[in-house]
């Protein structure tokens, strides 16, 4: 005797519900064993068991924070990449900068980077898009042997087409050109843009963040690095992608404030090594490049550490780097970031630094490009203000630069934001420069930005509307999984 049609329908719904909750329970176990933060684990377990119909697919697309299969040649010993790169890495270590005794704490960030501070470099601070891309395009035009180009976002607009034309010209002139982009960040890049580069002889690949069985359904991992290397001698890195907004042409958010860096010397080869690791993941190929460092012989050369970080690391490298910078500060630590959703470790070290008398300043934008992160930041600001941290909101457009200044001798420029995505989900890179003159340039940049900002007061938080406070606390709950 068969079931009636309504009964069969109810049985199918019941079976679906049971299956969804079983998958929710299984996914909860995976989250318990693999999610890095306790807050993130709790958030996922609650949602997976309460709303499994939505949370289960969301978890398997966005939930994991370990990137499986990526080979780091500075760490792994038995891969083809590691074996090939071992002598190049050894050559880099021969240019190691030996810090004075009072800076012995720098060994911690060297161990995180699996690279040393390298001596005999020059560094040029590039403020905003015009200065940065004028320098980058000049470097591309003068490259004689090869170019390595990597960006998170590449747009087919005025700036994107200018980059395209420069790469085509160099490829047709016989220069080997390798171009890597993130397929999620550059999802709007048309296939015609890529195809015309290939037809001109440019080697083009996307990062392929879903490669590998365990990464197959993940959309949460991004390669957020921006790297250009010319002939292994000159390199550029920092906050800027390739799009008209980075030149201030797209005015939806007002003028675009960003920071980039040009490096010459052995540090360029350290950035080259980071690119090769990413290229190898995308293509399983190792480009034939020059690895003999070109030390700068000017009267003053700078020690520079290139610190890559990402979800394939054994430790939470970016977060630990920031905590080390904050803990090492004796007089001041100034930090600029477009997004401010710090983890508990960074939040506590900021408070402690302020409580022990360090001048702690955080520079974030007034104008948001991500409403959820904008509201979440308010949940962190109150306790920091209470501890003595000064928070400034940049008024003159959108602040996108990522930089920090430690005392009067150390500064960092890179791609890391103060949020969970940069700390645990993105592939990032930071350059740390030890030099009083360079630090003075970064100080002048910060001071100019502070003059274009408003300092937040506790009254600003007390006068927020109820709607704003509710949105802020709601966004804060999602901070561990943003």
From TrEMBL:
Localization per Swiss-Prot or TrEMBL: Cell membrane
Enzyme class (EC, first level): transferase
Keyword Transport attached: no
Signal peptide (UniProt feature, chain positions): none
Membrane topology value: Multi-pass membrane protein
PROSITE patterns per UniProt: PLD
Pfam name, any one: PLDc_2
Positions annotated as active site in the UniProt record: 224, 226, 231, 400, 402, 407
GO biological process, one term: cardiolipin biosynthetic process
GO CC annotations on file: plasma membrane
GO molecular function: cardiolipin synthase activity
Transmembrane domains' residue ranges: 43-62
Keywords for this protein: Cell membrane, Lipid biosynthesis, Lipid metabolism, Membrane, Phospholipid biosynthesis, Phospholipid metabolism, Repeat, Transferase, Transmembrane, Transmembrane helix
Record carries keyword Nucleus: no
Residues annotated as domain PLD phosphodiesterase: 219-246, 395-422
Enzyme Commission identifier(s): 2.7.8.-
Primary location recorded for the protein, binned into one broad class: membrane
Catalytic activity: 2 a 1,2-diacyl-sn-glycero-3-phospho-(1'-sn-glycerol) = a cardiolipin + glycerol
Alphabetized InterPro entries for the sequence: Cardiolipin_synthase, CL_synthase_A, CLS_N, PLD-like_dom, PLipase_D/transphosphatidylase
NCBIfam families assigned to the protein according to its UniProt record, in alphabetical order: bac_cardiolipin
Record family assignment: Belongs to the phospholipase D family. Cardiolipin synthase subfamily. ClsA sub-subfamily.
PANTHER family according to UniProt: CARDIOLIPIN SYNTHASE, PHOSPHOLIPASE D
Protein role: Catalyzes the reversible phosphatidyl group transfer from one phosphatidylglycerol molecule to another to form cardiolipin (CL) (diphosphatidylglycerol) and glycerol.
Protein name according to UniProt: Cardiolipin synthase A
Species classification: Bacteria, Pseudomonadati, Pseudomonadota, Gammaproteobacteria, Oceanospirillales
């Amino acid at each position: 005797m068969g079931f009636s049609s309504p009964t069969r329908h109810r049985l199918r719904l019941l079976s679906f519900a049971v299956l969804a909750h079983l998958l929710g329970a299984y996914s909860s176990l995976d989250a318990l064993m693999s999610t890095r933060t306790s807050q993130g684990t709790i958030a996922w377990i609650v949602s997976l068991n309460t709303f499994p119909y939505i949370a289960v697919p969301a978890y398997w697309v966005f939930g994991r924070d370990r990137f499986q299969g990526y080979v780091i040649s500075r760490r792994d010993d038995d891969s083809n990449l590691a074996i090939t790169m071992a002598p190049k890495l050894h050559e880099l270590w021969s240019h190691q900068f030996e810090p004075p005794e009072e800076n012995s704490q720098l060994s911690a960030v060297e161990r995180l980077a699996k690279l040393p501070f390298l001596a005999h470099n020059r560094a040029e601070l590039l403020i905003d898009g015009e200065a940065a891309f004028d320098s980058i395009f000049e470097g591309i035009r003068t490259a004689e042997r090869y170019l390595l180009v990597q960006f998170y976002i590449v747009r087919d607009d005025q700036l994107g087409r200018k980059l395209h034309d420069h790469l085509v010209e160099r490829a047709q002139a016989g220069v080997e050109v390798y171009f890597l982009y993130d397929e999620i960040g550059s999802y709007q890049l048309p296939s015609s843009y890529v195809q015309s580069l290939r037809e001109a002889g440019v080697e083009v690949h996307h990062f392929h963040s879903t490669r590998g069985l365990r990464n197959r359904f993940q959309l949460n991992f991004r390669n957020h690095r921006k790297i250009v290397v010319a002939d292994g001698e000159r390199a550029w890195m920092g906050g800027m992608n390739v799009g008209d907004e980075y030149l201030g042409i797209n005015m939806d958010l007002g003028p675009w404030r960003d920071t980039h860096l040009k490096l010459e010397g052995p540090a360029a080869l350290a950035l080259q090594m980071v690119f090769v690791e990413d290229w190898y993941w995308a293509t399983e190929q190792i480009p034939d490049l020059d690895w003999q460092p070109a030390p700068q012989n000017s009267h003053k050369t700078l020690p520079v550490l290139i610190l890559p970080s990402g979800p394939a690391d054994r430790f939470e490298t970016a977060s630990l780097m920031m905590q080390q910078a904050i803990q090492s500060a004796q007089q001041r630590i100034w930090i600029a970031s477009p997004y401010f959703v710090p983890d508990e470790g960074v939040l506590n070290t900021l408070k402690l630094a302020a409580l022990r008398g360090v001048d702690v300043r955080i520079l974030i934008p007034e104008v948001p490009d991500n409403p959820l992160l904008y509201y979440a930041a308010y949940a962190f600001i109150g306790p920091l203000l209470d501890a003595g941290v000064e928070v400034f909101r940049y008024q003159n457009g959108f602040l996108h630069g990522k930089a920090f200044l430690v005392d009067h001798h150390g500064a960092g420029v890179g791609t890391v934001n103060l949020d969970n995505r940069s700390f645990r989900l993105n592939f990032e890179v930071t350059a740390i420069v030890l030099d009083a003159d360079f630090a003075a340039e970064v100080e002048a940049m910060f001071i100019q930005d502070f003059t274009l900002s408003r300092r937040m007061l506790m009254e600003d938080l007390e006068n927020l509307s109820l709607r704003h406070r509710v949105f802020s606390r709601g966004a804060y709950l999602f901070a561990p999984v943003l």
